[in-house]
Amino acid sequence: MKLKSYVSGQWFESSNSGQILYNAVTGSPVAEISSNGIDFKDALEYARKVGNKNLRKYTFHDRSRMLKALAQFLMSNKEKYYNLSYATGATKMDSWIDIEGGIGTLYSYASKGRRELPNENFYIDGNLEHLSKNGTFQGRHICVPLEGAAIHINAFNFPIWGMLEKLAPSIVAGMPVIIKPASLTAYLTELMAQDIIASGILPEGAFQLICGSAGDLLSHVNCQDVVTFTGSAYTGKKLKQTPAILDNSVRFNMEADSLNFSMLGLEAKPGTAEFDLFAKEVVREMTVKAGQKCTAIRRVIVPEAYIEDLGISIKEKLAKIKLGNPQSEGVRMGPLAGREQVDEVKARMNEIAATSKKMMEWNDSKLSDADYESGAFFSPTLLLNENPLVNLESHNIEAFGPVTTMMPYKTIDEAIEIAKLGKGSLVGSVFSADNNFVREIVMGTATYHGRLVLINADSAGESTGHGSPMPQMTHGGPGRAGGGEELGGIRSVMHYMQRTALQGHPTTLTAVYKEWTKGATKQEHDKHPFRKYFEEIQIGDTLETHRRTVTDADIVNFAGISGDFFYAHTDVTSLEGTIFEKRVAHGYFVISAAAGLFVDPKKGPVLANYGLDELRFIKPVYTGDTIWVKLTCKNKEQKEDREGETPCGVVKWDVEVLNQNSEQVAQATILTLVARKG
Ligand code: NAP
Q1: Is residue 242 lining ligand 1, measured as CB closer than 6 Å?
Q2: Are 243 and 274 in a shared domain?
């Protein structure tokens, strides 16, 4: 079977013969791959001119809904991906991480995009910055989607997750993707890509797939494109230096190899829960995906006194893991993805072993329903580096397979020094019940790590584990790990957008980004804003209320109702030496009384009070002070319609509470649910 690419709106099959891809278990051919004949310049233009243009017609919410529909569609087809995934050497559990982990990322972004981004095509980043004394010149940042294409170059180990975890934030941002999977396992990516295209969920031009070499694609990129790369540091560094990338300052995000550490606490002696959890995690990370995970534990840092016990425990656990054909009963570890990987991992392992002892030999495991000659098998290999501050091979060399090196430490400082010898990693983990120890390790190693996982007996049950990048949390690492950043929730959407600092008059800013900004013009109408339907409310609609004088009785009654008898409200004899001059009203009374002033009580379009943001009590309100409110519509956002519910939207109101001298005493943003006329 020849793999097809999907470029410039159609499936393309190269007429040239290509590279043969083999089943990792049996060694038999699975597919042939070649991209020869593709016009890469045209594909890139098509992404920009058709895909980007089409995606820009939609909002973040629309595009997030596309991801949800896509996730549902792919989930309904998952069995066929599982079936083909066996050919990559993956066990059912490995495939679950790849396939359902990938689809889960789509779901996660589908939900975050709608909850955390506006129903717009731009995003306001951060607060208003005051740039002038009188407030006529202010600043704010906005992010807008780039106008180019997102080129995603992926590693072979997660053919599905690798594609989807990068696709999700790109599509939410509004950028079309050109996906280039690693050739070795591209047949699985291609299978899912066929469904993505067949589903018709993404607009035309939003998705392209290149099976085979990327040809001269990267030499046509411009400043509106983004290139993300996952793979070896060697390839990453080479691609980063592509002249078009350098000349046009193209964003290049690199996720490269990483010598992650996992550390056992000084107190976690054999027999403790943390010791057992640690041994289990090391074994899990060595055997899941046969150790071909960028986040796998490569360096095991252990108190010197426990290293022998730990070695025994790991070896006992590894001995119970059945290695072989992933489709055979009870097999928990499959082969590497290809025969070349076996040679590569063996060579790297031998380099590390030059200064480390082998605790378990390569290829000493019996295989179930498979053989070493046909399949790409490599049995778990445990090494011991007795002098980790001197022997640096285990900190410098990545064997991308089931190879892990144990190394002893004596003190916390030494443990930190050893951890940092990885020169920048994706992840480190600490297994300890001593939170002071954990804190010291975090403070000592965080600058060298993109993620730190802190596990003890209390968190272990629900922990997502050392090796799992979560869509909500940043994935990436400094230094050797590539210096890139992916995932991390909405942060990764921003990688596909341009952040622009806007500076101007508040009225101009309000007109540009559709959020009322203090100092911008407002409009007052006869009709109370709470009598207006969602569609009728305009940004900047304002109401100045009548006034209310605060009395002793108000404060005493509020103390009784709330149970808040703080001395400044209830004991006027205790004020000497405090910041208060007189009996002061509760802040919550002030905001409640403010609501009493601005709320229109009759039944109408306002369905409910939805919440309160950014509440500040700015000045004390004393007995005898008179308060009043300026209520201004800040912004509004239509909510998705739900069956059985009144169609509505959320309106945010700026609430300024002032006193008789027009000094501001409180500030808040309140949210109301307002019915739509329709
Ligand atoms: P690789 O050989 O560096 O290849 C990575 C990707 O780059 C593949 O898609 C490859 O395509 C492509 N590529 C190679 N030369 C290219 C060129 N001239 N132009 C455009 N694309 C090119 O890495 P790998 O063997 O697939 O993956 C294993 C490595 O990836 C390990 O070192 C591992 O640590 C690292 N990794 C890191 C992460 C992370 O998140 N940090 C995740 C997974 C893996 P072809 O396959 O067609 O050559």
Answers
A1: no
A2: no
